[in-house]
Structure formats: C-alpha cells, structure tokens
Amino acid sequence: MARSPFPSQGSPGERPPTVAIGIGCMRGAALATLEAAVDAALRGLGPATVIALASLERKRDEPALWQLARSHGWPLWFFSADELAVVPVARPSPSLVRSVETASVAEAAALLAVNRNRTPGEPPQLLVEKQAHQGADGKWVTVAVAGIRSRL
Predict the structure, then answer these.
(1) Contact 68, 24 (CB under 8 A)
(2) I need a labelling partner for 8 at 20 to 30 A (CA). Which of 40, 97, 100, 106 fits?
(3) Which helix (H) or strand (E) segment is 66 a member of?
(4) Distance between the two ends of the chain, CA-based, in angstroms?
(5) What is the CA radius of gyration of the chain?
(6) pLDDT digits 0-9 by tens, 72-130
C-alpha cells in the first residue's frame, strides 16, 4: 500500500487515514492526466495509506487506469452502474445519469471501495469531494477520496 508524500494535515491523536480513490475519466485520458488529478486530490490529506483505486465497470478497458494502479501498487476495483447508483452522494450529476446510468462515479466508487476494507465501527467518509481536472491531453478526470480516520 502506498503512502502519500505530503505533510500531515490531520488532527493530533489521529492516525493517517486509510483511503480509496474513486476516479472517473473520459475515454482515452492519458496517464499524466490521471496522475495530476490524483496528486491534486491527495495533496491536502497529508500521509495516507491508499488501499484501492476504483471506477465504473465500463472503464475496465482504460489503459491509463491500469497503468496508474500498477505504478503505485494499488489494487484496481470496478463497480457496476447499479452498485454506484445506490450510494448517496452530496452532489449527484444528472448529466452523468444520462451518460453512464449513475449519478456519481468518483465519490460513489471511493466510498464503496473503502467500505470493503473497513473495520466495523469505523464509518467511512468522503475526505475529498469530487474534483474535476482537465489534462494537457484535453481530457477530463474526476477524482474523490474516501477514507477512515482512526484515533491512535
């Protein structure tokens, strides 16, 4: 599991969070675009243990997602639109519903992924709301981070 290189922003008495990164992207987005979006999302968290990268099932054939996961040693998980659609999120996207049949990819995928690995009694929370990033390739990526902040 990879740790973020950024300085800690957590409260005293808290362990660095265990997080999952949810990501949605346009078809053909470059690895550099995904890297920049993930780096921006993780920057404010401080040290974090990333347990998974997660996305929509129909993105399974996106090479940059696999490259990103492999380069960091993160497992890559995919969820169906039906699985993502039942996750409540603060800012659902009606346009996303029309295109991929769920109101959230990044936030819902992050929450589902972190929920798979949590200890009972540790509620997952959205630590970084969805952030949109346009890369030099002109492609858009949306990233959200969900996690568990544990007391020492």
Answers:
(1) no
(2) 106
(3) helix 63-72
(4) 20
(5) 14
(6) 999 999 999 999 999 999 888 988 888 899 989 999 999 999 988 766 667 789 999 99
